């Protein structure tokens, strides 16, 4: 990796290259089919960057900017890996009918949203790595850590994974945090909305949850145990989707405050806004698992229970209060403000993200070298400092 000023060396794209790039941008629905992670990384970086972008010499990314982007590239590759697992089983072209039906109990459009969120993460990972390459910096690859076994259920591709969705500890405190007028950056803590410990968010196998199980809408108590378990798995996924994306919202906002190059800042805030967009969507869908008519599902195997959070009604739990409640910000002396939170290094930074995802169980089974690598990237990103030149 080069240091400090990384002056861009960019060739203007040919009309054919520009056309190809535009097709990639507008061909959203075909993105997943046409470009895997490895394929996406092969997008010609120089062409992507030179489309309307001109940086003055001396204004290029700093060492800190590169560290921020390298951690974000790793985070996006991990997001791509987990979202791809959800997409294979429950996306619009998903292959597990019972899982898809259970997800559709949360919202009939869930498979489309899952496919599009996956598509977005793949684009984030490919873009950031291509940008790094265009600046002479080292892109990030986690391929050597792709060694975990995923689901064996119908629909799942039998490939090795980076992330483990089979026994998650989903931190659901984002639900109560975003309904509160208190801010974690001021020391506030928040209770779990639902306790989800060591639970699968994807069907594990066809023996555990047969793919052709009929999933009623809703799944009432006393239903086929396979249907109840599949609904609990889909509900866990719904809460996990929001957990991941609210984490991305905080991470991008926190790291944006460390960017020096205006162009890197533009990348961080522009992708970060989409993470928040995702979070808002999933916040709404998760609420459907804990409101009528769906609330009350209990996994017959693990006892995981999704209560009705509207009974009794309270502002701390009400399911349709999905937009961020104003909270304290900057100073308690200032008026409360509706914001992304946390955005402190300690709670919203790269190291905090690694800590949170590790506690989630997302990396269960990963090699110690993986943790060493991701922690080093996180430390370097958190150490970045904004320099205005
Ligand atoms: Fe992303
Ligand atoms: Fe995301």
Plain-language structure description:
The protein has 389 residues and is mainly α. The protein is 48% helix and 3% strand. It has a two-stranded antiparallel sheet with strand order 1-2. A two-stranded antiparallel ribbon has the order 3-4. Helix 5 (63-90) packs across helix 13, helix 6 packs across helix 9 and helix 12 runs antiparallel to helix 13 (368-382). The relative contact order is 0.14. It binds fe (ii) ion (2 copies). One fe (ii) ion binds at residues 76, 79, 121, 124, 248, 275.
Condensed summary:
With 389 residues, the chain is mainly alpha-helical. It has helices spanning 15-26, 28-34, 37-41, 45-50, 63-90, 97-106, 110-134, 173-177, 225-256, 262-289, 345-348, 350-359, 368-382, and strands spanning 148-149, 160-161, 168-170, 196-199. It has one domain (63-382).
From the N-terminal CA to the C-terminal CA, the straight-line distance is: 21 Å
Strand order of the largest sheet: 1-2
Q: Which radius of gyration do the C-alpha atoms yield?
A: 21 Å
Rough outline: globular
Quick check: average pLDDT? 88
Q: Helicity level, as a percent range?
A: 40-55%
Give the low-confidence spans. Answer: 1-57
Q: Give me the strand/helix succession.
A: HHHHHHHEEEHEHHHHH
Based on the model shown, name its key terms:
single chain, 389 residues, mainly alpha, two-stranded antiparallel sheet, two-stranded antiparallel ribbon, 13 helices, 4 strands, 3% strand, globular, binds fe (ii) ion
């Amino acid at each position: 990796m080069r240091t400090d000023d990384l002056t861009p060396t960019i060739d203007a794209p040919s009309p054919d290259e520009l056309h190809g790039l535009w097709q990639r941008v507008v061909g959203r629905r075909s993105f997943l089919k046409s470009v895997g992670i490895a394929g996406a990384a092969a997008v010609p970086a120089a062409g992507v960057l030179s489309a309307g972008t001109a940086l003055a010499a001396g204004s290029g990314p700093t060492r800190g900017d590169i560290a921020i982007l390298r951690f974000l590239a790793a985070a996006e590759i991990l997001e791509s890996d987990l979202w791809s697992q959800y997409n294979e089983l429950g996306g619009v072209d998903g292959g597990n009918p019972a899982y898809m039906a259970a997800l559709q109990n949360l919202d009939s459009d869930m498979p489309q949203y899952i496919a599009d969120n996956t598509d977005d993460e793949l684009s984030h990972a490919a873009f950031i790595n291509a940008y790094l390459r265009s600046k002479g910096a080292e892109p990030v690859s986690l391929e050597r850590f792709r060694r975990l076994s995923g689901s064996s259920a119908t629909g799942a591709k039998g490939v090795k994974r980076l992330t483990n969705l089979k026994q998650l500890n989903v931190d659901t405190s984002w639900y109560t945090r975003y309904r509160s007028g208190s801010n974690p950056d001021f020391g506030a803590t928040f209770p779990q909305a639902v306790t989800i410990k060591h639970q699968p968010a994807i069907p594990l196998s066809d023996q555990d949850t047969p793919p052709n199980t009929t999933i009623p809408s809703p799944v009432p108590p006393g239903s086929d145990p396979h249907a109840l378990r599949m609904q609990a798995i889909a509900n866990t996924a719904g809460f996990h989707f929001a957990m991941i994306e609210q984490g991305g919202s905080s991470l991008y906002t926190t790291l944006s405050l460390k960017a020096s190059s205006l162009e890197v800042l533009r990348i961080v805030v522009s992708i970060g806004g989409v993470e928040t967009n995702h979070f808002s969507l999933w916040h709404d869908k998760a609420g459907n698992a804990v409101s009528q008519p769906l609330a009350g599902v209990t996994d017959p195997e693990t006892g995981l229970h999704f209560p009705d959070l509207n009974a009794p009604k309270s502002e701390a739990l009400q399911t349709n209060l999905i937009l961020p409640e104003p909270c304290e910000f900057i100073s308690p002396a200032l008026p409360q403000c509706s914001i992304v939170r946390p955005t402190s290094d300690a709670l919203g930074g790269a190291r905090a993200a690694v800590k949170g995802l590790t506690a989630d169980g997302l990396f269960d089974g990963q090699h110690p070298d993986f943790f060493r690598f991701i922690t080093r990237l996180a430390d370097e990103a958190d150490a970045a400092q904004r320099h205005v030149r």
